[in-house]
């Protein structure tokens, strides 16, 4: 920072275009420079600060979307405003933008007057954005509450994630310093609560310009949060003159315009952000490198490829025995699966004889004994004696193993044993009788039985 110069204007009013242009021309003359990038830093009162959300799908065409939606987000349309935006946050569903806009007809008066003086304005920004750049340069990316306190009033902003998230301002209605301090403390408390809710440390920075020393001391005694007095602090910049005489917004504007990795606001851009392109020389170098690689690939000896093929054939030959073993194991596994399936089918197709015997033992009363039992694939036949044969069929029918239980012959009373002799036949539940296959014919044409 080689030189600074501050001009005084009518108190409480902004300088007229002719006065400001003449002052800028005088400063350039004193700085002995005729060619310089000029940044016009407009006051906060001339601009509108907004935060807006858009679907993530419009990220590739944000400039067009902001231009189309500007009259909905701000009081201005894209045709009668200067505006710019920053990307604050991004999720898979939406993106959040910080948008600043100002009326173009008001600013055009200054641009035209500067042009008449031979001065070209290359950037337009806002004083609070400049102060945020100065704050980030000095303290890294620390979020904080900034207050610019003057004799007639104050203005301030919340600096979060490199953007002006919220602004406020007011005029002092009295010269009583304690009342003024009460008004300022109310604003400070409100905005430090916002910092606390967002998970940020409550840091406060105050710039006192033409304010009384009494108000300064009152605020210092009442503020409990970490406090920085901007015009009493080293800026990490080599600046000429006294610290209290530095035009801080102008210094912030210079930092904002020179900081390469910072997304600086420029309302003249109207949201058009140039896409960085690769340098032309780098493109030529890459093309030459690709061409060289292509030539090497074409000129490579064929024996390299033949050697690769031979290595592949060798690998195939070495693995043939392993492939045969794997195929043999697959066949063995398949045969075992078939055996298991056959055993399972045999087991589940019909009940085992032992299960049927166990069921008969459970179902038949203790007064029943059997003299003969025949179990076939689908039927069960049994003969025996019972103290009383009535009710045997019902007991057998209640079993899940048997159906269609009936007497195969009439029962009769054996007087010698004092018991009923019975002959019962029944079918096994769930077993269907398979149709008989036709008998093979003998050589002479006779059928075998």
How are the SSEs placed, and which strands pair?
Layout: H1 17-30, E1 38-42, E2 47-55, H2 62-73, E3 81-90, E4 94-103, H3 104-116, E5 121-126, H4 127-139, E6 144-150, E7 153-160, E8 163-171, H5 177-197, E9 204-209, H6 213-222, E10 227-229, H7 248-258, H8 280-299, H9 302-318, H10 320-349, H11 353-363, E11 368-375, E12 379-386, H12 392-397, E13 402-407, E14 412-414, E15 419-428
Parallel strand pairs: 1-5, 6-9, 9-10
Antiparallel strand pairs: 2-4, 3-4, 6-7, 7-8, 11-12, 12-15, 13-15, 14-15
Explain this structure to me?
With 449 residues, the chain is α+β, with helices and mostly antiparallel strands. The protein folds into three domains: 17-269, no CATH class; 281-318; 353-428, 2-Layer Sandwich (Alpha-Beta Plaits), CATH 3.30.70.2830. It contains twelve helices and 15 strands. It has helices spanning 17-30, 62-73, 104-116, 127-139, 177-197, 213-222, 248-258, 280-299, 302-318, 320-349, 353-363, 392-397; strands spanning 38-42, 47-55, 81-90, 94-103, 121-126, 144-150, 153-160, 163-171, 204-209, 227-229, 368-375, 379-386, 402-407, 412-414, 419-428. The strands form four sheets. It has a five-stranded mixed β-sheet with strand order 8-7-6-9-10. Strand 14 and strand 15 (419-428) form a beta hairpin. Helix 4 crosses helix 7 (248-258) and helix 5 crosses helix 6. The chain is elongated. Residues 439-449 have low confidence and may be disordered.
């Amino acid at each position: 920072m080689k030189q600074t110069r501050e001009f005084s204007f009518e108190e409480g009013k902004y300088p007229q275009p002719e006065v400001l242009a003449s002052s800028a021309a005088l400063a350039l003359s004193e700085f002995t420079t005729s060619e310089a990038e000029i940044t016009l830093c407009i006051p906060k009162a001339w601009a509108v600060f907004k935060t807006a959300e858009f679907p993530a799908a419009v990220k590739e065409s944000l400039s067009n979307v902001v231009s189309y939606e500007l009259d909905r987000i701000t009081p201005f349309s894209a045709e009668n405003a200067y505006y710019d935006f920053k990307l604050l946050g991004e999720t898979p569903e939406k993106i959040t933008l910080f948008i600043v806009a100002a009326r173009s007809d008001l600013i055009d008066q200054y641009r035209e007057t500067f042009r008449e003086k031979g001065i070209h304005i290359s950037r337009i920004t806002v004083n609070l954005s400049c102060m945020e750049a100065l704050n980030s340069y000095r303290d890294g990316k620390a979020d904080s509450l900034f207050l610019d306190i003057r004799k007639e009033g104050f203005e301030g902003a919340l600096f979060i994630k490199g953007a002006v998230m919220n602004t406020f301002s007011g005029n002092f209605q009295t010269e009583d310093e304690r009342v003024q301090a009460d008004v300022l403390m109310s604003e400070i408390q409100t905005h430090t609560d916002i910092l606390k809710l967002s998970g940020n440390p409550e840091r406060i920075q105050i710039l006192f310009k033409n304010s009384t020393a009494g108000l300064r001391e009152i605020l210092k005694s009442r503020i409990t949060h970490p406090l920085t007095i901007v015009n009493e602090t080293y800026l990490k910049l080599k600046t000429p003159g006294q610290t209290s005489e530095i035009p801080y917004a102008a210094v912030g504007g210079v930092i904002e315009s020179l900081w390469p990795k910072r997304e600086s606001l420029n309302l003249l851009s109207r949201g058009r952000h140039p896409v960085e392109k690769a340098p032309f020389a780098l493109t030529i170098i890459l093309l030459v490198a690709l061409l060289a690689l292509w030539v090497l690939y074409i000129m490579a000896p064929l024996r390299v490829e033949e050697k690769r093929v031979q290595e592949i054939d060798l690998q195939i030959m070495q693995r043939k025995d392993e492939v045969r073993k794997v195929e043999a194991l697959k066949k063995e596994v398949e045969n075992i699966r078939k055996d298991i399936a056959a055993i399972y089918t045999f087991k589940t197709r019909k009940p085992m004889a032992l299960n049927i015997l166990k069921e008969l033992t459970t179902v038949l009363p203790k007064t029943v004994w059997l003299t003969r039992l025949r179990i076939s694939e689908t039927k069960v036949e049994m003969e025996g004696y019972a103290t009383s044969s009535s009710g045997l069929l019902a007991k057998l029918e209640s079993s899940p193993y048997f159906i269609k239980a009936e007497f195969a012959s009439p029962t009769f009373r054996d007087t010698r044993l004092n018991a009923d002799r019975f002959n019962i036949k029944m079918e096994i539940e769930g077993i269907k009788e398979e149709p008989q296959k036709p008998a093979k014919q003998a050589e002479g044409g006779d059928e075998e039985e």
